[in-house]
Design a protein that fits this description.
Structural class: mainly alpha
Distance between the termini: 10 Å
Number of domains: 1
Radius of gyration: 20 Å
Number of strands: 0
Helix content: over 70%
Number of helices: 2
Shape: rod-shaped
Strand content: under 5%
C-alpha cells in the first residue's frame, strides 16, 4: 500500500512540474508569436532578404515551441493515466 502511495506522490509531483513547464512554454510561445507576426509583416512589406530570413527564423521558433508544448501535454497525459491506474489499484 505504501509503495503505491509513494508512486502517486511522485507522479503528482511530476505532473505538477509538467504543468508549470507547459504554462511557461505557452507564455514564451505568445512572445514568439508576437515576434513572428511582426517579422512576417516586415517581410511582406519590405521584401528584403534579411526580413524574409528573419520571418523564416521566427516561424521556426513558433513551430518549435508548439512541438514542445505538444510533447509536454503528451507526457502529462501519460502520467495522468498512470496515476488513474494506481488510484484504481488503491481502491
Amino acid at each position: 500500500m505504501q509503495r503505491i502511495e509513494r508512486k502517486l506522490f511522485r507522479l503528482q509531483d511530476e505532473i505538477a512540474a509538467l504543468e508549470r513547464a507547459e504554462r511557461l512554454a505557452r507564455e514564451e510561445l505568445g512572445y514568439h508569436q508576437h515576434l513572428n507576426d511582426d517579422a512576417q509583416r516586415d517581410a511582406v512589406v519590405s521584401d528584403l532578404p534579411i526580413d524574409r530570413a528573419d520571418a523564416r527564423e521566427t516561424a521556426g521558433d513558433v513551430a518549435r515551441f508548439e512541438r514542445h508544448i505538444a510533447m509536454l501535454r503528451k507526457k502529462r497525459a501519460r502520467l495522468e493515466e498512470q496515476r488513474k491506474m494506481l488510484l484504481a489499484r488503491l481502491e
